[in-house]
Design goal:
transmembrane; 9 helices; about 140 residues; FAM210A/B-like_dom; FAM210A/B-like; about 0% strand; transmembrane helix; single chain; DUF1279 domain-containing protein
Length: about 140
């Protein structure tokens, strides 16, 4: 049950009109990543790189939470810091209710920085895996059948 040529031709014609070759469209993951949100991109990294992606993201999350806990418990005025970094006052007030515990406050700030952690994971994991394969620490990927 093969596809008829007429069904695929309009798709490739649209790509050619846009200046994209059919071969590039089939193999270029950057176009696909532009359509995905950060959460979907993170899931894709986890699927493609497995334990390395998950371990890196969990590690960076624990470091982030630790840093923010240390900052809050040391008395750093995190509201002023976050305001200078461009966070809106309404998002800060909703995350930082008066009288919250140090851990809850640190966790709320940690959650505000989730997009930064996700972006770091999405960029870093492929580089880490490529480097580990280059030095022989990981096996090269199995060829697709």
């Amino acid at each position: 049950m093969g596809m008829k040529q007429g069904h695929t031709a309009p798709f490739f014609k649209d790509l050619q009109d846009a200046g994209v070759s059919p071969e590039k469209a089939a193999t270029d993951p950057s176009d696909e990543n532009k359509k995905l949100n950060k959460s979907q991109q993170l899931k894709q990294v986890f699927k493609e790189y497995g334990a390395v992606g998950v371990s890196f993201h969990v590690g960076i999350s624990l470091v982030s939470l630790g840093i923010f806990y240390l900052a809050v418990s040391s008395g750093v005025d995190m509201t002023a810091v976050l305001f200078k970094l461009g966070f809106s006052e309404s998002s800060l007030q909703s995350k930082m209710a008066a009288g919250t515990s140090t851990f809850v406050l640190a966790y709320a700030i940690h959650k505000l920085f989730a997009p930064v952690r996700i972006s770091i994971t999405i960029v870093s994991v492929p580089l880490i895996v490529r480097y580990c394969r280059k030095i022989g620490f990981f096996k090269p990927p199995a060829p697709n059948p």
